[in-house]
Amino acid sequence: MFKDEAGGKILSEFFGLRAKSYAFDMDSDEFKKCKDMKKYVVNKKIILNEYKNCLFSGRQQLRPMNVIRSHHHAIFTE
Q: 56 in helix, strand or coil?
């Protein structure tokens, strides 16, 4: 089941890699979502064609990301 994230606009391309990881192009706007990635990484470092290449070639894409996390009350950065 899909919800209308485009607001009624017509999509020209849609690339769905997996659940909560997809991108689409409408008119001149791009919309990208990728679970477990920071928004600034998705918006600044990933382009729409990389979703397309990943879908059709099956190759993984990796991007560096700064994260502060805790595991068993010990704080570390990745």
A: helix
Instruction: Judge residue 24's burial from the number of C-beta atoms within 10 Å of its C-beta, 0-12 exposed, 13-18 middle, 19 or more buried.
Output: buried
The CA radius of gyration of the chain, in Å to the nearest whole number, is 15
- The confidence score (pLDDT) of residue 67 equals 85
Q: What is the pTM of this model?
A: 0.74
Alpha carbon of residue 49 to chain centroid: 12
Contact call for residues 28 and 11 (beta carbons, < 8 A): no
C-alpha–C-alpha distance, residues 52 and 23, integer Å: 9
Per-residue model confidence (pLDDT) at position 61: 87
**Distance from C-alpha of 73 to C-alpha of 26, rounded to nearest angstrom:** 44
